[in-house]
Protein backbone atom coordinates (compact mmCIF):
# COMPACT_ATOMS: atom_id res chain seq x y z
CA UNK A 1 0.00 0.00 0.00
CA UNK A 2 2.90 2.36 0.71
CA UNK A 3 4.24 1.89 -2.83
CA UNK A 4 0.83 2.72 -4.26
CA UNK A 5 0.55 5.90 -2.24
CA UNK A 6 4.11 6.88 -3.12
CA UNK A 7 3.26 6.71 -6.83
CA UNK A 8 -0.13 8.39 -6.60
CA UNK A 9 0.91 11.59 -8.44
CA UNK A 10 2.28 9.52 -11.32
CA UNK A 11 -1.01 7.64 -11.51
CA UNK A 12 -2.95 10.90 -11.68
CA UNK A 13 -0.65 12.21 -14.41
CA UNK A 14 -1.06 9.04 -16.45
CA UNK A 15 -4.85 9.18 -16.10
CA UNK A 16 -4.90 12.85 -17.07
CA UNK A 17 -2.81 12.14 -20.16
CA UNK A 18 -5.10 9.26 -21.12
CA UNK A 19 -8.23 11.36 -20.68
CA UNK A 20 -6.77 14.14 -22.84
CA UNK A 21 -5.76 11.69 -25.58
CA UNK A 22 -9.18 10.06 -25.43
CA UNK A 23 -10.82 13.49 -25.76
CA UNK A 24 -8.71 14.34 -28.80
CA UNK A 25 -9.49 11.01 -30.43
CA UNK A 26 -13.20 11.41 -29.71
CA UNK A 27 -13.13 14.90 -31.27
CA UNK A 28 -11.33 13.57 -34.35
CA UNK A 29 -13.93 10.83 -34.70
CA UNK A 30 -16.72 13.40 -34.64
CA UNK A 31 -18.09 13.26 -31.12
CA UNK A 32 -20.15 16.32 -30.27
CA UNK A 33 -19.48 16.53 -26.53
CA UNK A 34 -15.84 16.05 -25.62
CA UNK A 35 -15.61 18.61 -22.84
CA UNK A 36 -16.10 15.99 -20.08
CA UNK A 37 -12.88 14.28 -21.14
CA UNK A 38 -10.91 17.51 -21.03
CA UNK A 39 -12.54 18.51 -17.75
CA UNK A 40 -11.59 15.19 -16.18
CA UNK A 41 -8.05 15.56 -17.55
CA UNK A 42 -7.80 18.99 -15.92
CA UNK A 43 -9.18 17.68 -12.65
CA UNK A 44 -6.72 14.79 -12.61
CA UNK A 45 -3.87 17.15 -13.42
CA UNK A 46 -4.89 19.35 -10.49
CA UNK A 47 -4.96 16.28 -8.23
CA UNK A 48 -1.44 15.40 -9.38
CA UNK A 49 -0.26 18.92 -8.61
CA UNK A 50 -2.01 18.82 -5.26
CA UNK A 51 -0.17 15.61 -4.36
CA UNK A 52 3.17 17.27 -5.19
CA UNK A 53 4.38 16.21 -8.59
CA UNK A 54 8.16 16.31 -8.69
General description of the model:
The chain is mostly helical. The protein is built from three helices and no strands. It has helices at 2-6, 8-28, 35-50.
Summarize the biggest pleated sheet.
none
Assign the structural class, choosing from mainly alpha, mainly beta, alpha/beta, alpha+beta, or little secondary structure. mainly alpha
How much strand content do the residues show? under 5%
Topology as a string of helices (H) and strands (E): HHH
Helix content: over 70%
- What's the rounded overall pLDDT mean? 92
Number of strands: 0
Radius of gyration: 13 Å
**Overall 3D form:** elongated
- In angstroms, what separates the terminal alpha carbons? 20 Å
Give the assembly state of these chains.
single chain
> Segments where pLDDT lies below 50 for 5+ residues?
none
Count of helical stretches: 3
Amino acid sequence: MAAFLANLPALFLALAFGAAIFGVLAKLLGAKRVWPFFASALLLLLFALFFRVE
